[in-house]
Amino acid sequence: MNKDLLIGAATAAHQVEGNNIHSDFWVMENLKHSDFAEPSGLAVDHYNRYEEDIKLLADAGCSAYRFSIEWARIEPEEGRYDYREIEHYRKVLRCCRENGITPIVTLHHFSSPAWLIRKGGWTNECTVDSFAKYARYVAMQLGDELEYVCTINEANMGFQLQKVMDDMKKASQREGSVQVGVQLDMKKILLSMLEQGVAFRCNPLKIGAFLRPRSSEQEKIVMRSHQAAKQVLKSAAPQVKVGLTLSLFDYQPVDGGEAVAAQLWQEDFGQYLPYIQDDDFLGVQNYSRKIVDAKGAREPAKDAPLTQMGYEDYPQSIGHVLRKVAKEFPGELIVTENGIATDNDARRCDFIREAFAGVMAAREAGVPVKGYLYWSLLDNFEWQAGFGKTFGLIAVDRTTQTRYPKVSLKVLGSLNAKEGENKDEYNQL
Fold first, then answer.
1. CA separation (Å) from 118 to 92, 115, 363?
2. Which of 19, 115, 390, 417 is the most exposed place for a label (fewest CB within 10 A)?
3. Edge-to-edge strand order for the sheet containing 289-293?
């Protein structure tokens, strides 16, 4: 039995809640020349339907739910906190407990208050203090309800995006270079940036939204924000385990690519390690591998199976990444995201089984894995790519907001019983 392993799924507030009107993403989605495929709108109305969604997760046999608290709801204007929104998230946390679900809370999952971006956002030193104040308020209000807190989701995403932009200057770039739904149409990006400059009242080349390219030096602002938030969380709620999450590829060197693979790993992981060494845990987020030769990362082979996101369908990568991280990071590891975008749920079922086998093999080899959270609980708004990418364990008819649980949700929940009395049922799913 795997009862001591947290098994469940993840979401992000802006992608599922709907009507996040005070956030930077809402501003960007609704511009005339938005580079988003479509606006988020009501999304999948998780804000009002969280009880139904959490119950579906629990009824399937899962034991954990990772979700984010939306900063733009808590602090819609700088210095003005909305207590009604704190009470909303208190209800979400208690709903988890009532259903036997361990909540894993993320304080920042890509979306920020629009006012923060007007001040310079994640490239401005003032964000360190602003984020700490927000974290302190959440900790003071909800500290007794919290157990695991991820301060920042994929804190290394800005530098990964910077590498993509650098590559685009050299050659055309296809989807699959980063583990997030972004569009790389430069004409759309430039038109949208001009309008964003007007909307945020700043230089369009210096818009500090989180999903923007950042230099290694600018990434230090993100990491100092994490450290400041961790300090106030620990002060207000000492029992809370605090960490962040990183987006990590499984770099596999071939044909003399060892040095390049090592450099890529240093850029994705090593440069952040000094800031997280004392964290209680690390959220590991992985979706695929990259084959690396002496010239750099190769495109997937022509016959390689691809996901809807454009990267290789390779579930074995999560087990490899966990083992590699554990060689350098001393704390617990939680797989906070791992999943597949596909319209074939039978393939999703197999992906979950194959990925989880790698997680368990790493755990049995001594890697301190505390949890496995599939991305995502619901088919949702995949940032600039819109609603067309389907990662979810639950399908949603967005005209009626009716939920349709997939077989893959049962497969995920059955992982706890794989070695127990329900083994035959698990094998039949």
1. 30, 5, 45
2. 19
3. 250-253, 289-293, 296-297
Contact 83, 26 (CB under 8 A): no
- Comparing C-alpha atoms, which of 61, 70, 139 is closest to residue 101? 61
Provide block-wise average pLDDT over 10 residues at a time, the chain (429 residues). 86 98 97 94 98 98 98 98 98 98 98 97 97 98 98 97 78 55 68 89 88 94 98 98 98 98 98 98 98 96 97 98 98 98 98 98 98 98 97 98 98 77 54
Q: What's the rounded Cα separation, in Å, for the pair 349 and 27?
A: 36
Could you give the CA distance from residue 267 to residue 377 in angstroms, rounded to a whole number? 30
Q: Do the Cβ atoms of 196 and 103 come closer than 8 Å?
A: no
Location of structure tokens 């309008």:
195
What CATH number is attached to the domain comprising 19? 3.20.20.80
Give the dihedral of Cα atoms 150, 156, 158, 159; nearest 10 deg. Answer: 170
Q: How many CB atoms lie within 10 A of CB 350?
A: 16
Q: Which domain holds residue 374?
A: 6-250+278-288+316-323+330-428
The rounded distance, in Å, linking the Cα atoms of 22 and 112 is 9
